[in-house]
Write a structure and sequence with these properties.
Helices cover 47% and strands 0% of the residues. The protein contains 8 helices and no strands.
Length: 180
């Protein structure tokens, strides 16, 4: 290497590293500011435009066709379990919000539980147990002891971490989602 020649960093190799690099670029943050546990909205200041840009970039980066969020304003205002049940009954692939439910329930019950058992457990989760099941934490101003059913679907966006987003991308890349 010649003196003064730029040293290029090796490209990110894991899905999470690639997701973190995308978020750093879109949010103009340093790599050390974006960790697996970072809450996208509360800590990284991601907003609805950032989510849109992130999903478009993830589609290009990973060659994915991510499902559109099937929620309208009325659905976003429903209690979490009711809203997610409504989304699951709609045609289309597994959205990020639906994935959050499945990821949380899978971490508690394992993959083999029936849909009715998964739905029943999800109805009983507290906000704190939901955050813990996602390997995250409860955003500030939300009572961890409150039932998850007391939150509106729109509040789930505050629970999104970099790690959860990376797991969703891995899930989608693996092709484990079902088009109904």
């Amino acid at each position: 290497m010649e003196e003064g020649e730029a040293v290029s960093a090796s490209p990110p190799s894991t899905v999470e590293e690639r997701v973190r690099a995308i978020l750093c670029e879109l949010l103009v943050l340093r790599a050390e500011e974006v960790t697996s546990e970072s809450l996208l909205m509360d800590e990284l200041d991601a907003d609805s435009i950032t989510f849109l840009e992130t999903f478009i970039t993830l589609e290009k980066e990973f060659g994915l066709d991510l499902p559109d969020v099937k929620a309208d304003e009325a659905t976003l205002s429903l209690p979490v379990p009711d809203a997610l049940r409504k989304l699951e009954d709609m045609a289309g692939g597994t959205t990020f919000l639906e994935y959050l439910k499945e990821d949380a329930v899978r971490s508690v019950l394992g993959a083999s539980a029936s849909r009715s058992v998964r739905n029943e457990l999800f109805q009983q989760l507290s906000v704190g147990s939901f955050a813990k099941a996602l390997n995250g934490r409860v955003p500030s101003g939300i009572d961890p002891d409150a039932p998850l059913a007391s939150l509106r679907l729109t509040m789930l966006f505050r629970f999104l971490t970099v790690g959860t987003l990376a797991r969703y991308v891995e899930f989608m890349v693996a092709g484990r989602y079902a088009h109904r």
